[in-house]
Amino acid sequence: MQSHQAGDLDAAERMYREVLELRAAQPDALHYLGVLCHQRGRSDEGVNLIGTALRITPKHPDAHNNLGNIHKECGRLADAEACYRRALAHGPQHYNALNNLAVVLEAQDRLEEAFEAYGKLVQQAPKFAHGHYLMGMFLRSNAQCIEHVEQSVECFRTAYELDPRNVRALESLGVSLYALHRREEAAQVYRDWLARDPNDPIPRHMLAACGGAEAPPRANDDYVRNVFDSFAESFDEQLLKNLNYRAPEVLAKALAGVLPPPAGDLDIVDAGCGTGLCGSWLRPYARRLTGVDLSGGMIEKAQQRGSYDDLQEAELTAFLQSHPQGCDVVMSADTLIYFGALEEVLAAAHQALRPGGWLAFSLELAEGEDERVDLTPSGRYQHTRSYVERVMRASGFAQARIDSEVLRKEGGQPVVGWVVLAQCGHPSGT
């Protein structure tokens, strides 16, 4: 278990199996080996191992909770819910199971039940900072009135007071204040944060996002890395809460309309792969599927999915520039929303594609006919169609299809984005 907690999965798996050679029905070894197998992308094996452990110790709430986590992360929400309810039946004070139950109820759009579970969580575990943070996110994401956003402010304040390491709560506090048009208060949150930690890239970027400083041409690498490293463990959970998160699916279907039937013969780059949500869509087409991301935490999660032949912790533009004509497809789901200026990265994508190759990516939509890029209070950039069209032409993509699609919701409202699809010109220029 010490090796497992330290991240030495090879040693941990070897020792769990040694325990099971000595005693085949040792339930803790079965349970934790099951968790480890899921972490290594062998989720079915993990389910079977934890199921065996539960037949031996059927009233073990931690095992029921961890089995639920596997089902949740595999998208089997009803199975996950059943596991969390069993965990709570055998351990009514198991607040991690209650936390997870609230998440899957929200993911199933059972909002009243989810709200009740979050409320019970903060009552039952008032010192559990993450519970207050999740309640704040729920209130803001599903706000029915301005009072819900105001209540989210108090939740984020409490979460940060209980755990000053929870910078996501502080960042979310600023976003909620801005949403309430309390812009100076939002800016002051980030100024105070910068005063405490002047080297932290997150408050510097967010101060610019709420208008308190000049907007940079793109999000700083350290900002992106820090945000997503801290977000890695709960990234899929946050997306689960929003069943309308559609960017990977929408981009994959756009590509399916122009690529030949899947034959496993293309070299594909998932640019900004995150936890690997695009991997299962791209795998049938790929001879070699490479995931690239700045965040080491995200790369570790993507590794567990088992979809990729190679995973690289690297800055996206530099990676593409270093692989001229190295791939047939570049796909980038909700990654270029952290780029304001797109000129360099799109030129790098064109350079990385072989003649006839395809580029597919998503952006957030900025309204207006002018060429404009806006840094929004979320910390992400929005682009107008005119700007995207000009940069695509300048980057070598003579023709690009740019469609508007709802890619997810935020604050209870749909977020409309651009879905961009373009082909790298053939040597003949066609």
TrEMBL record:
Pfam families: Methyltransf_11, TPR_16, TPR_19. InterPro entries: Methyltransf_11, SAM-dependent_MTases_sf, TPR-like_helical_dom_sf, TPR_rpt. It comes from the Bacteria. TPR repeats lie at residues 61-94, 167-200. SUPFAM superfamilies: S-adenosyl-L-methionine-dependent methyltransferases, TPR-like. Residues 269-361 form the Methyltransferase type domain. Keywords: TPR repeat. PANTHER family: PTHR44998, UDP-N-ACETYLGLUCOSAMINE--PEPTIDE N-ACETYLGLUCOSAMINYLTRANSFERASE 110 KDA SUBUNIT. This is Tetratricopeptide repeat protein.
